[in-house]
Each structure stands twice: as C-alpha cells, then as structure tokens.
Design brief:
545 residues, alpha/beta, eight-stranded mixed sheet, binds phosphoenolpyruvate, binds magnesium ion
Length: 545
C-alpha cells in the first residue's frame, strides 16, 4: 500500500480504479531532423492510430448522443485524410528538415488561421476542428493520448489538473473521485466534484502521477485528503467503516427534506442550488432546493464544437425552467475565458487571463453571441420563473449597455409576436471588488445581486484561484471579503434589491450565522450541500448576541 496526500476539497469516501488523464504538452519543440523519411513514417502511424480512435469515438457518440451530434467525428476523420492538410505537413518536414510534431503544429496554426478569417460562419468554426485533429495527431506522436486510459466502472480520475473542457468529455456515471497533482480549492474540478457529490483531492504533487499506474485499486478519503493505492485489508476495513458512518450522517440530513430554512428566532432564508448542466436538475430536486441560484450556462458552450444555436440554448433553458415548475431559476450568461477556454472562440493567449478578456467583456464586444443567448433566455422565460444574471461586472456603464441590449432583444421578440414572461428578474454577480464598492450605484439598476465569492476572493486578495502554490495565502474568511459582502448587502437593501451568495463560501456553515446577521436573503450551494446548510440555518438563533 502507498499513501499520498493533498488537500481534500469535498468530503466523501470512495473506492475505485486509478484512471490517469494525461495532458498534452502544448509546447512543441522544433528539432532538426536528418532522416525525414522516418518522420513521415511516424506521421503515417500517428494518422492510423488517430483514425482508429476517431472511429471508436464516433461509434460511442452515435450510441450516446445520436447521429447529428456524432457527425462531427466523421468530419474529423475526413479532415485527417485531407490532401492539402497532409501535403502541408510533409512539405514542412521535407523542406525544413524538422520533426513531425512541429510540422503538425505549424500546419494546424496556418489552417486554423485560414479558417478563422473566412466570411462563412460554418467555415470559421472549422478552425477548432483542425486544432482538435492536430492535437490528436501530436498526442499520438508523443505518446500522450489519453483515450486508451482504463475505462472501469468506478474510475478515480487522476490528472495534473483538469480543464472544464476535459471534464465535459468524461463518462460521469463511472467517475467516483478526482485526484489532481495541482489545482486549487475553487478550481472547476473541485466545484464539479461537489456538484457530483464525490470526493476530490487536489495538490498531491507531481510524484503521485509518476508513481501510480492505470488500473490500480485505490481508496480516496476526501475528508483527510489521502489516497490509498493498493490498500491493505486493515485500511480497507477502516475506511469502509468511515464511509458507512458518513452515509449514515448524510441519511440523517435527509430528514430535513420538506422543512423550512428558518432560524430558531424565525428568520427565513432561501437556499437554492448551483448547477453546471441540465443533468444536475435531478440532484437539485432530490436535495429539496428552493430554486436554482446559479446555472452556469458555460456548459452549453464547452460541450459544443461550435457556437450553440438559439434553438439549442432555448431547448436547454426551457427544460430547466419546466423541470423546476415555477421555482426561481437564475441563469448566468456565458462566463467563458480565463480558465474556461473554448477553442472555437479563438481567444488569444493572455498573460493574465483571470484579469483578461472573459465573461461579460466578451459579450459586450461580440454582441451577436450575447444577443443569441438573451433571445434564447427570454423565449424560455414563458416556461417558468426566470432570473438572468451577468458575470464579472465592474462598472455602471457596462451595466447600462447590458440593460440596453436586454431591452432591444425583448422589443424585437415582442415585435416578432413571441410570448415572454413579464417578470424576468435581472441581476448581477458581485465578484469584483469594484462592483462591491459601487454597489450603491448598481443596486438601483437591478432586481438582485449574487455574490460570487470565488472570484471576489481572488480579486480582493490578489490570489489567483487556479494557483495551488498560494493556497496558504487564501484566507476565505478574510475581513476584506466579508466587509465587501456586508457593504453589498446594505446597498442592495437600501435600494430594494435582494442579495444572495452563490460562490463556494455560501456552503461554509461556520459563516452561515454571520451571513444571516448581515441580512443575506439567499444562499446558493451545490445540490449536495443544500440540506447541510438548512441544518445550519435551523440551529442559528439571531436573537442571541
Ligand atoms: C464565483 O466566482 O464565486 C462564482 C460563483 O462563479 P464561478 O465560480 O463560475 O466563476
Ligand atoms: Mg465567478
């Protein structure tokens, strides 16, 4: 038995088999090569392997997501055989005497650039496909392809760190735990684990990935942050006992279903759920959440190979609203950029992506994307109780522009005779210090605020939420963050707006009483935390000093 430890970011215990997801090294070195024929043979072998992989993915997709959605992999197989693409690779090898990886990377850049500059939107979107097949070729050349990882029924996903786009392609029914060498508590892998109600450990270090093998049996303890590889019988028995007790505690919380979120002195608060996909609605209902306080709409963009159409988005939003049967559903407009990269957006590489071109900044500079999403949202509003929320707000003028675009989209839909709800609430995330500081100016313009403590903490404390090396400096209870929240509550209430918290801090039950004393109206947490927070609320007595 070998034990590795990191930081547990979701408390639960699970046993399964190690499944390593290898990341592709995106820095391709240019090497001088004498034997160009050998490089060309390497390309041929990589192409054969890539074609076989794509055929396998196509067949799986055909079964799981239907023919229309699976077609993209047929297109990839065709692109792999494209003469211009292949000639470019071999020409570069022959004329520049360079390694195959480099020739593929240069070809990918050239072709992607060519597609991106085309007028036709369909052709522009092919830039992402050419990058995708090129990455696959490079991964085969370097031996870092991960499709051949063991596919067990109980997978413990082990990786360096996981990008949101990588988690999208996982077969989530089979994933029982996440363990990453790097990553941070508020990274999206951690959020996903909480949503899926499975243990997660971050920061186990590079040695871990070198030491473990695909297929090894292991037990993950998300409470202590330990992973036991090939555990001995005594450890197995001890962790099984702990798991059973944990289950029992979670079962006890089930008794709180149907009960009010009310303190001993009679103060009520709404407890809503955060979701990242339509598939999470089952968990929202099963955990008796009063509504959805944050629906991260990015998943629609991450799961797709091209901009999701108005119809696709409308269908997804309508489904969520209908499933929630009149309960509040707050859908956040797209928050792409920073750590949530989507190839077809063709975003430039940035020095400081968290401070860069992301979220509302993309929407305001590419209004066609924003308007498509808003049209889908307003059309879906007829099917339930919708709130629309905008991320990464920093100024009054930004919000004025957003509200103007909303008015325009609404008027256009009404002119088209489309039925919409009269009472769509509009709100903003308070996730930058700027927004909190000018919350007195922003509050009169909206119906609600929702505090995004994950980003608010990173920007206030100047600590990149993705950087594991500075975890020790991230004090989630830092007075500066709590003061900004309190200030936002006071300003919201002064101007008749309600205010919730949808960042991870909302689930920190050591702060529940403080939040209630500040006057927070809503706490929105991962579905698996709803009953735990209800329990904490029911134990608070605000009449006592
Ligand atoms: C936040 O920043 O707190 C938040 C809820 O948004 P996300 O984690 O998706 O950035
Ligand atoms: Mg955020």
């Amino acid at each position: 038995m070998t034990v590795f430890s990191g930081k547990g970011v979701y408390g639960a215990i699970a046993q399964g088999k190690i499944t390593i997801i290898k990341q592709q090294d995106t820095t391709i070195k240019c090497l001088h090569i004498e034997n160009t024929e050998a490089e060309k043979s390497r390309i041929e072998a990589a192409k054969t392997a890539a074609a076989e992989q794509l055929q396998g993915i196509y067949e799986k997709a055909l079964k799981e997501i239907g023919e229309t959605n699976a077609q993209i992999f047929e297109i990839h197989m065709m692109m792999l055989e494209d003469d211009d693409y292949n000639d470019s690779i071999t020409n570069i090898i022959d004329t520049q005497k360079v390694n195959a990886e480099y020739a593929v990377a240069v070809t990918a850049d050239n072709f992607a650039e060519m597609f991106s500059s085309m007028d036709d939107a369909y052709m522009r979107a092919r830039a992402a496909d050419v990058r995708d097949i090129s990455n696959r070729l490079i991964a085969n050349l370097t031996g870092s392809i991960s499709d051949n990882a063991v596919s067990d029924d109980r997978m413990i996903i082990c990786a360096d760190d996981l990008a949101p786009s990588e988690t999208v392609s996982l077969d989530k029914d089979k994933v029982v735990a996440f363990v990453t060498a790097h990553g941070s508590s508020n990274s999206h892998t951690a959020i996903l684990a909480r949503n899926m109600n499975i243990p997660a450990i971050i920061g186990v270090g590079d040695e871990f990935l070198k030491a473990v093998k695909n297929g090894s049996a292991a037990i993950v303890d998300g409470y202590t942050g330990e992973i036991f590889v090939e555990p001995d019988e005594a450890t197995k028995a001890c962790l099984e006992k702990k798991r059973a007790e944990d289950e029992q505690k979670k079962r006890l919380l089930q008794e709180l279903k149907g009960k009010d979120n009310i303190t001993i002195d009679g103060t009520k608060v709404n407890i809503y759920a955060n979701i990242g996909s339509v598939d999470n609605i089952g968990a929202v209902l099963a955990n008796d959440a009063g509504g959805i306080g944050l629906f991260r709409s990015e998943f629609l963009y991450l799961e797709s190979n091209d901009y999701p159409s108005e119809e696709q988005q409308f269908a997804a939003y309508k489904r969520v609203l209908e499933s929630m049967a009149g309960k509040k559903v707050i859908i956040r407009t797209l928050d792409i950029g920073a750590d949530k990269q989507v190839d077809y957006f063709n975003l430039a590489k940035e020095e400081n992506p968290a401070l860069g071109y992301r979220a509302i900044r993309i929407c305001l500079t590419r209004p066609e994307i924003f308007k498509t999403q808003l049209r889908a949202l307003y059309r879906a509003s007829a099917y339930g109780n919708l709130g629309i929320m905008f991320p990464m707000i920093t100024s009054v003028s930004e919000l004025e522009k957003i509200l103007e675009i909303c008015r325009e989209v609404k008027e256009q839909l009404i002119a088209e005779g489309v039925e919409l709800s009269e009472r769509v609430e509009l709100g903003i995330m308070i996730e930058t210090p700027a927004a909190a500081i000018i919350s007195d100016r922003l509050a009169p313009m909206v119906d609600f605020f929702s505090v995004g403590t994950n980003d608010l903490t990173q920007y206030t404390l100047a600590c990149d939420r993705q950087n594991a090396a500075i975890e020790q400096f991230v004090d989630t209870h830092h007075e500066a963050v709590l003061r900004l929240i309190e200030m936002s509550v006071q300003n919201a209430h002064k101007h008749g707006a309600w205010i919730g918290i949808c960042g991870e801090l909302a689930a920190d039950t050591t702060l529940t009483e403080s939040f209630l004393r500040m006057g927070i109206d809503e706490l929105s947490v991962s579905p698996s935390f709803v009953l735990k927070v209800r329990n904490a609320v029911r134990h608070c007595d605000l009449s006592k000093k």
